[in-house]
């Protein structure tokens, strides 16, 4: 028996097609959804992601402004840039690419973004609303995971979801969204004792660890759904996830590849959030 490979690339294309149509209908009413991406320093991985976001925006007929600054930008200068974007009526979404240089306090920066333009879903107002189940911009990677499960008719209700990783941007919110879908959620992390005893009980296993081939077939329950959020380089410099993909193929029921799994969904959800923000500006769409 071989696992079904969850195709994030194809699913993201389908979503983007729908997003593109909604962009057109907004545009015909005079509103072009606009995303501002702020990039500081010259981390090559960040540049690749940011280029990807810009390209996707443009392919969907959205506006994308890239604001690039040197590593030496001061925190107060960045806060002024964000203030300007908060007030700019043509900008519906603001994304400050993380990680930031050490001299800038990430929390202060996130806090400065107007929650109505917080398309990453990282602002405490967004996080709070998400956790109590109110309307909010959902963080893109966890939301992308939920969309993938929906696309493949995998209902988390009553299932044991084990999340490895407790970051504010992936692990923690992924567990919360699964909880809202009525999963029983366990969080594991770097201080978990006996990780494998938990992973082996997972009906849905979400890995956001950041270590190449960290999980193999010994870690998973037969028939598990394995969602790999890792973005690592293997010994040959190739992009790979946390999961030894080939190894789990004959034991899992579903598995996401890297690349082509969760990553493309993250970008699609960012586009959707930017569109939603722009649609909000139109009273008649409410
Ligand atoms: N404020 C902020 N928001 C973010 O959402 C954010 C961020 N900062 N900092 C960096 C991480 C990382 N991230 C990715 C998005 C898409 C892919 C993606 O599309 N990956 C492709 C492969 C891309 C490649 O070939 O390198 C895939 O998995 O198929 C990867 C990583 C968003 N991030
Ligand atoms: Mg995101």
UniProtKB/TrEMBL annotation:
UniProt key word Transcription: no
Pathway(s) it belongs to: One-carbon metabolism; tetrahydrofolate interconversion
Coiled-coil blocks: none
This protein's UniProt keywords: Amino-acid biosynthesis, Histidine biosynthesis, Hydrolase, Methionine biosynthesis, Multifunctional enzyme, NADP, One-carbon metabolism, Oxidoreductase, Purine biosynthesis
EC numbers: 1.5.1.5, 3.5.4.9
Residue ranges constituting the Tetrahydrofolate dehydrogenase/cyclohydrolase catalytic domain according to the UniProt record: 6-120
Molecular function GO labels: methenyltetrahydrofolate cyclohydrolase activity; methylenetetrahydrofolate dehydrogenase (NADP+) activity
Residues the entry annotates as binding NADP(+): 165-167
Family designation: Belongs to the tetrahydrofolate dehydrogenase/cyclohydrolase family.
Functional summary from the UniProt entry: Catalyzes the oxidation of 5,10-methylenetetrahydrofolate to 5,10-methenyltetrahydrofolate and then the hydrolysis of 5,10-methenyltetrahydrofolate to 10-formyltetrahydrofolate.
Protein name: Bifunctional protein FolD
Gene designation: folD
């Amino acid at each position: 028996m071989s696992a079904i490979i969850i195709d994030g690339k194809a699913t993201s294309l389908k979503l983007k097609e729908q997003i593109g149509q909604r962009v057109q209908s907004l545009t015909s009413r005079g509103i072009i959804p606009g995303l501002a991406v702020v990039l500081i320093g010259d981390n090559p991985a960040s540049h690749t992601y940011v280029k990807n976001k810009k390209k996707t925006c443009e392919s969907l007929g959205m506006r994308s402004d890239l604001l690039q600054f040197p590593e030496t930008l001061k925190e107060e200068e960045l806060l002024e840039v964000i203030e300007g974007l908060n007030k700019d009526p043509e900008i519906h979404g603001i994304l400050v690419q993380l990680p930031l240089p050490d001299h800038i306090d990430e929390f202060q920066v996130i806090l400065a973004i107007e929650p109505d333009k917080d398309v990453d879903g990282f602002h405490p107002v967004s996080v709070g609303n998400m956790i109590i189940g109110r309307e909010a911009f959902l963080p893109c990677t966890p939301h992308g995971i939920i969309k993938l499960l929906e696309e493949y008719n995998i209902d988390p209700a009553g299932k044991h979801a084990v999340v490895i990783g407790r970051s504010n941007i992936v692990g923690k919110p992924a567990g919360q969204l699964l909880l809202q879908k009525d999963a029983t959620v366990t969080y594991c992390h770097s201080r978990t004792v006996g990780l494998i005893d938990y992973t082996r009980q997972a009906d849905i296993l979400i890995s956001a660890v950041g270590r190449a081939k960290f999980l193999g077939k010994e870690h998973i329950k037969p028939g598990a759904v394995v969602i790999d959020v890792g973005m690592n380089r293997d010994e040959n410099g190739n992009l790979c996830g946390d999961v030894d993909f080939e190894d789990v193929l004959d034991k899992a029921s579903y598995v996401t590849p890297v690349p082509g799994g969760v990553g493309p969904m993250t970008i699609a959800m960012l586009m959707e959030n930017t569109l939603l923000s722009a649609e909000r500006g139109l009273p008649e769409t409410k």
